[in-house]
Amino acid sequence: MAAMANEFDFFSRRCVWVNGPIIVGAGPSGLAVAACLKEHGVPSVILERADCIASLWQKRTYDRLKLHLPKQFCQLPKFPFPEDFPEYPSKKQFIEYLESYAKRFEVSPLFNQAVQSARYDETCGLWRVRTVGTGADAGNRSHEVEYIGRWLVAATGENAEKVVPELDGLRDFGGDVTHVCDYKSGEAFRGKRVLVVGCGNSGMEISLDLCDHNAFPAMVVRDSVHVLPREVLGKSVFELAVLLMNWLPLWLVDKIMLVLAWLTLGNVEKYGLRRPSMGPLELKNTQGRTPVLDVGALAKVRSGDIKVVPGIKRFFPAKVELVDGQVLDVDSVIFATGYRSNVPQWLQGCDFFSKDGYPETPFPNGWKGDCGLYAVGFTRRGLAGASADAVRTAEDIAKIWKEELRPAKRSFACHRRCISQI
Length: 422
Ligand SMILES: Cc1cc2nc3c(=O)[nH]c(=O)nc-3n(C[C@H](O)[C@H](O)[C@H](O)COP(=O)(O)OP(=O)(O)OC[C@H]3O[C@@H](n4cnc5c(N)ncnc54)[C@H](O)[C@@H]3O)c2cc1C
Ligand SMILES: NC(=O)c1ccc[n+]([C@@H]2O[C@H](COP(=O)([O-])OP(=O)(O)OC[C@H]3O[C@@H](n4cnc5c(N)ncnc54)[C@H](OP(=O)(O)O)[C@@H]3O)[C@@H](O)[C@H]2O)c1
What we know:
- By secondary structure, this protein is an alpha/beta fold.
- It has helices at about 30-40, 55-60, 90-105, 170-175, 200-210, 235-245, 250-265, 280-285, 295-305, 345, 380-405, 405-420, and strands at about 5-10, 15-20, 20-25, 45, 115-120, 125-135, 145-150, 150-155, 160, 175-180, 195, 215-220, 225-230, 230, 235, 290-295, 305-310, 310-315, 320, 325-330, 330-335, 340, 375.
- Residues about 5-10 and about 410-420 have low confidence and may be disordered.
- Flavin-adenine dinucleotide (FAD) binds near residues 47 and 55.
């Protein structure tokens, strides 16, 4: 590894000096920032808890998943999607693209390295990042490592951990209970009555997938939701919104989106899909709630194949009681209740990130903290947002790297200073 200038054993924990930024997470954000740094001639090290790149896409998504935005909004910096890829690449194609991306920029993350803590050491002016081994290395204390470096890039994503609500009686339910991150296809649910909790993009699409596998989904919609068509007259609604936002205020673009939705989808409220009072783009910007882009679930809602039900009151063995008093017989429960960032679990002594795991400073200034800390992929703007963060972060670090640092001298000096502190 070119980026490592030195390493030594300190009792059971190895300490490794990183000559360049330490990036946590080898998803699209981590890969993009490492690639952009490489283009500037800055080495880096990526620490990844899983045994592969893009573990969210490879291990925690369902089989039928496709990008729901056109490919030009999902490509990473400096490397477009292949021309023969469709407008909405499949999950398999997206993973292939990410593999080629890592290969093209010679990005080789360190796998099975789960970051437990990262803190800035003011004494030596460096970040100290501790990892434990995962996979085959799990529990082996000799695989605990401390990485030390001048910059830290948080790229662990907005979907690092699943969210599973605590609901009364769930322990007594007795049937299968899973989260959508473990769902692959409806095959395993053929003929079953499945309660899908949540009506985001995941809840809607797996309800559709369950129908396609002859299961009987009931989808819990506890509140309101914006459903938009993915396309209008063959044109991506997202692309249209981006275009209109160049000319019109957000509230007006929201109104146009809702008129288009009404013209294309009709009145969805009569099926139990009440719209929020705030428009879809404003809701996304202010509360991070993503509108659902319909890929076919709505037709199944209309036909009654997907039953829309209100919030859950409590579970009983093989049953669920809803807030309106209905009791349903249920074989399986799938939580499509979203994800959360895990930054507060590992980033210590730093108030740049709030308790919910997102930067305190609002967009567009939340990518850079103090003391060489950066956040890539926390703007709730999908892959396009992550790419923009990666470009800015790499430029900023490269500027300091080129102007202020003499890599060989600096790394040696820091390393010696640091070792003497340990
Ligand atoms: C089902 C689904 C579909 C989506 N579809 C789209 C889409 O079509 N278009 C779009 O723009 N966005 C989409 N998104 C949003 C998604 O967040 C991005 O596509 C993208 O994966 C974000 O990349 P990331 O690198 O920031 O985060 P991630 O892809 O989540 O990668 C973060 C990496 O960090 C690692 N990690 C986490 N914690 C630690 C730790 N403590 N130590 C070491 N490593 C750690 C994880 O293992 C993971 O590999 C989708 C999300 C989901 C869940
Ligand atoms: N094709 C694609 O590209 C694709 C597919 C799937 C997902 N995604 C993306 O992946 C990210 C995560 O999506 P997601 O759908 O998994 O999560 P999400 O957007 O966070 O949606 C979670 C859903 O669960 C509901 N919920 C949470 N707690 C609940 C409870 N106790 N009872 C009932 N409902 C509850 C929420 O309702 P409230 O709104 O009331 O809180 C919401 O409907 C999003 O960015 C999404 O766009 C993309």
